[in-house]
Amino acid sequence: MSSPKKIGKVYLIGAGPGDPGLVTVRAKELIQCADVIVYDYLANPKLLDWARPDAERIYVGKRSGMHSLPQDEIEEILVDRANKALQVVRLKGGDPFVFGRGGEEVSELQTDGIPFEIVPGVTAALAAAAYAGIPLSHRTYSSSITFLTGHENPEKQTLSIDFKQYGSTKGTLCLYMSLGQLPRILRELKDGGMSGHTPVGVIQWATLASQRSVYGTVDTIVGDIESAGLSTPVMIIIGKVVAERSTTKWFEGRPLMGKKIVVTRTRDQAGQLTSLLESNGAEVIELPFIQVEPDFNPQQLAEILAGIAIYEWIVFTSVNGVKSFFDLFYKAFDDIRCLGPMRIAAVGSATAREIEKHHLKVDLIPKKANGDALASAFIENEGIESIQMLVITGNQNRETLVQRLESEGGAIVDSLPLYKTSKSDLSSHPAAERFRQEGADAVLFTSSSTVKSFVDQRAALTLAADARQPSMGSIGPLTTKALQELNLDVGFESNHASLDHFIDATIQHLQG
Q: Which residues have CB under 8 Å from 114's CB, separation 6+?
């Protein structure tokens, strides 16, 4: 007797309006374990960063007037992958059951006997209104909310919705996919009794750093949109509540809103700087000019780990060093207490934070985040003569730290290189192509090595004639020196070599 055929499962997931922070916890869990991810134009590509490296990614590019795949072919993909016993995530912008054709996909799955689950998402009307400060309902002005679409079916030449009947509404109208039909829709609303003075708000790319809002009335909004140059995707909100929007622009009023900034850190290090920039409204392009790879002598590593308890200080010179060391340490030991009673030093606050993730206290951080400052802190304050120290480094760390600890401090120092940094090839990188075409307002350099890599790859980063010409930002004196030595104009420098101060300097420069 043959065993029953194994069937996978399809998860119809609302990817929300764009901001990855608005995706549900359940959605993230499913993306992380999916075998296949089928995603739309309006699903933020950053959500794919949560996926397994081996997960199949299928872009179906559904956008008004620009369908990469017909709906029936998308449904065939879902059924085919599920019949191969795979776990399939179908990522749909907004909510799958609000003008997302989720009902059609569920119908097909039921017909083919495919198990499915539906995970709702934040629909565009709710998100756009919130990020623009518009209350969709209001005790005085609106006690009803109506969702309408101006793009029911791409094969249909006419609209079945009678917009005249909504012309007398006292509530709020939210129009999805209606920009192309807006003049006609507004005429019908007026024919139904709506005043030409009724407030209208149009929000483009809601919840993203590129969000823009335009406000007018039923009589003026078409011209207002044209003057502002807004295009799809937009959410259109009509009703008296638009005039009651908050005067504080909590989202669009952030200090870096509308600014495009390049982050030059490695992919795994860019997260914190990117997060700080995005929280201030910036649109970030991550260009990993350098890549970090393990590079160590196994025999030297084994000898040092075997005698790890002899060291009175362990010194970390970078975040990469911390990550590399503990990755290897936990392969040799299963208890953090095997480090022994040694004290710990970090070259800067970012490195200290990485150490603290292992529930370890950092005993020494210099006021300035560089090797010279760390050496001076030891020599002047710690009394390290004849003390045994272990310094964790990479292949490009300056030798000054170790030399000063030995020659001026009298310490006995072992240096343990664990990684190497090398330049990335950006010639075909999608972020590099975007930078070439669009440019940026600023390029932020966080180390000398990223500066050198930028110069080495200048030919691959030549900007288009109409691209924005960026200012060069430096995190501190050593990085500034590298920029100057390579004949790059320094637009601004952080007062202190920390990410928080670097953000402040960026804001001050770009606002000025």
A: 7, 8, 9, 10, 78, 79, 82, 83
CB atoms within 10 A of CB 54: 6
Question: 260-289+424-511: same fold as 9-122?
Answer: no
* Residues 416/301, Cβ–Cβ less than 8 Å: yes
State in words which class domain 260-289+424-511 has: alpha beta
For residue 252, give the nearest of 232, 294, 215, 280 by alpha carbon: 280
Global pTM?
A: 0.76
Residue reference for tokens 């969702």? 147
Contact predicate 124/235, CB 8 Å? yes
Rounded Cα–Cα distance for residues 417 and 393 (Å): 5
Provide mean pLDDT across the span 313-327: 93
Q: Which helix (H) or strand (E) holds 414?
A: strand 412-423
Lookup: tokens for 342: 């040694």
Which element (helix H / strand E) includes 91? strand 87-92
CATH number assigned to the domain with residue range 125-244, chosen from the 4 options 3.40.50.970, 3.40.50.300, 3.90.780.10, 3.30.950.10: 3.30.950.10
CA–CA distance, 424 with 221 (Å, rounded to integer): 47
CA-angle at 93, arms to 88 and 97, nearest 5°: 80
| Domain positions in the chain | 9-122, 125-244, 260-289+424-511, 294-421
Q: In angstroms, rounded to a whole number, what is the distance separating the alpha carbons of residues 344 and 348?
A: 12
Q: Which residues are designated catalytic? A: 40, 62
> Alpha-carbon distance 426 to 459, whole Å?
10
| Residue length of the chain | 512
Fold of 294-421: Rossmann fold (3.40.50)
Q: Is 459 exposed, middle or buried (CB count within 10 Å of its CB: 0-12, 13-18, 19+)?
A: exposed
Provide the angle, in degrees to the nearest 10, between the axes of the packed helices 319-332 and 298-306.
Answer: 70
Does 1 have pLDDT greater than 70?
Answer: no
Q: How far is CA 491 from CA 412, 444, 475, 484, 512, in A?
A: 42, 10, 11, 11, 12
Report how far residue 184's alpha carbon sits from residue 159's, in angstroms, rounded to the nearest whole number: 10
List 98's β-bridge partners, or say none. Answer: none
Token pair for 183: 């003049």
Token readout for 113 is 């006997």
**pLDDT tops 70 at residue 153:** no
Distances (CA, A) of 143 to 102, 120, 197, 239: 28, 24, 20, 11
DSSP state of 20: G
- Which H or E element spans position 262? strand 260-263
* Percent of the chain residues topping a pLDDT of 90: 70
More confident residue, 184 or 398: 184
The CATH H-level superfamily of 9-122 is: Tetrapyrrole methylase, N-terminal domain (3.40.1010.10)
Mean pLDDT of 406-432: 86
